[in-house]
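User: Predict the full complex structure for these chains.
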Amino acid sequence: MLSSRCQCPTHSHTYSQAPGPSPGETTDYAFEDLQNMGAKSVCLMTDKNLSRLPPVQIVMDSLSKNGISFQVYDDVRVEPTDGSFMDAIEFAKKGAFDAYVAVGGGSTMDTCKAANLYASSPHSEFLDYVNAPIGKGKPVTVPLKPLIAVPTTSGTGSETTGVAIFDYEHLKVKTGIASRAIKPTLGLVDPLHTLHMPCQVVANSGFDVLCHALESYTAIPYSMRAPCPSNPIQRPAYQGSNPISDIWAVHALRIVAKYLKRAVRNPDDLEARSKMHLASAFAGIGFGNAGVHLCHGMSYPISGLVKTYKAKEYNVDHPLVPHGLSVVLTSPAVFTFTAQMFPERHLKTAEILGVNLYPGSVALQGANIRTAKTQDAGPVLADALRKFLFDLNVDDGLAALGYSKDDIPALVKGTLPQLPM
Amino acid sequence: MLSSRCQCPTHSHTYSQAPGPSPGETTDYAFEDLQNMGAKSVCLMTDKNLSRLPPVQIVMDSLSKNGISFQVYDDVRVEPTDGSFMDAIEFAKKGAFDAYVAVGGGSTMDTCKAANLYASSPHSEFLDYVNAPIGKGKPVTVPLKPLIAVPTTSGTGSETTGVAIFDYEHLKVKTGIASRAIKPTLGLVDPLHTLHMPCQVVANSGFDVLCHALESYTAIPYSMRAPCPSNPIQRPAYQGSNPISDIWAVHALRIVAKYLKRAVRNPDDLEARSKMHLASAFAGIGFGNAGVHLCHGMSYPISGLVKTYKAKEYNVDHPLVPHGLSVVLTSPAVFTFTAQMFPERHLKTAEILGVNLYPGSVALQGANIRTAKTQDAGPVLADALRKFLFDLNVDDGLAALGYSKDDIPALVKGTLPQLPM
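Assistant: Here is the predicted structure of the two-chain assembly.
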């Protein structure tokens, strides 16, 4: 049996340049792809931590080797804001690049998507493409430059989605830009880039995968949403659960159930880290079409209104609730609430997470008798989630992040602009 | 229990204009998509049978309503040849279109892909892009025009793939063009377009889905193929089984196992026909990346060397072995042969097709004892396939198509150029 204690040697900082397998061959390919696209002037976006580490170094070497000129922007903010997006956009506008490469987690990929969009649409106001009601939510009709996304965490799935999330500081809420036009041209999902992630980063980003899968699978089906947009260009990026997103959600959830604990507990477990890196992309393909709901909607004020909480193992100079943690903490309550709408789907996910829905039954000509009832679906799934989080030593509820009952009105106020997602 | 007799009222021709639900709203959207793409002069490709039927009529009405000028090419040949491809290419070159719409089965979509490719690359010789060893297999580096594919059969999955198959008449073999560049921009998978399909067309196209799923799931894994191409633009369209294609193969196979017989037997079973239409696209996404192997490789001479066999319910003026039939007839023999390589995968597919791998076992603390052994995997799957085909009254073996032992050398000769696929 695996120990429940983290064996990760890299507690004190976000990434360590540990010896081990070198990511390389796959990453090299991407820059031949860039060359094939005719790229001559590339913008490489990353953050300060990563800029000194192998995933970025390999990209730079590969660009140089292939004779592609590039400039590095390493001022990406972990949990970006409108201000940090703007800074990256200015850099992109000045550079007049013909392709982009984003190496990092969701913050980096999202910042790069925004930079590509606004540099390709230089006369737009920032709020033009930001989701309504905060922005104008205009459809994107300009052509963008190619963007290659190289994820180095296993949670966001941003390499597969047309979404870029940021804190809108003026209102202290998270919002985003959502359009299939900003989806990366190519995602390079190389598990060797994840071997340097500290345990807590693996856990929190894994929680994001868990909730992407659970929320997209339990989202309102596309066929129940109305009215239909009058023109396909006005279709939202998030269209509701559908037969394709369901496949990805269920498959990603099976991987999380089987491999997340292993990936957290042992940084050398290449199989588990590889599977979680794929699960992140798989869940991204699913929720990127279906959407997410309450866990994500409520997570934005939970991280946006942070006071002093600083996540362990994140090397940042500002208070930070990691996105995956802010998402997963409310999940037992959320699914208790949503189960009444689609109880069978909630039971199915509980079963994937290890709940035996047939306790004490006997095989009777192949047909077991299920004892779990649909009215118990919410509590059954909530219990499964609490056990899963307990096994991974997750902080217990919003109080652990420094919130009290007095914060509820502000948390509610910050949630409402996210809905409907 | 479902009757094994076909209840289809449209035995005598390929499509009947039966009353019933009208496909429309979804199809309308596609042409707003065309308008959003800035299309002003569209090439609509179809075949003579379909040109008078609702799927094509709706497209024409929609184009007219949206003020998009278009020309119709309805000379697509069912099971196209290099000659019929060339004819369509000439039409496309003369028209100088800025977008394409293909309404029909695989033959129409494949013809349209080829027309788009060569009209976009007017100085290329026909064999430049045809797969080696018959053609030169050059990578596609020219930009193509947008192509919207509207499948009206549920088998080919061509709306999702970068492949176009044709008979190369000079050598009497099938070959094709394979490049992600010819993949349709948009596939419009509207199940209402399938309600007019005669039973035999549903069955044969369903067999194609069955074999796409089985072959791509049992194809040599991408990680066992060597050498890697030196540049990503030389990556083959078919890359071997992989974690993404596996998901689609298994999911499509589950749908075939559950719904194909219902879809064949009752043309009004909208649920079954809808599921099969999705399964066709799902299997297409899988095999379009992973590839197929022996069933498809051997099918090409089986249909290419046809003497007098004319499939029931296909309204054509030439001898014809429908593609799906030519593929599935060899499947019991093929999987008996290939099972030694990946026995667990063969057993898993047999189980999905209804084989009980745990006969006579008892549930023992949740762990059943599997009695099927890996060395039996081939015969187990072959028996499952024979039963499946028997239930659908499929012609028994190659003799039923008019082949004898004397034809074996020619069939082998026609198979060899297909490998490796």
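The beta strands of chain A are 41-45, 69-73, 99-104, 147-151, 163-168, 173-178, 186-187.
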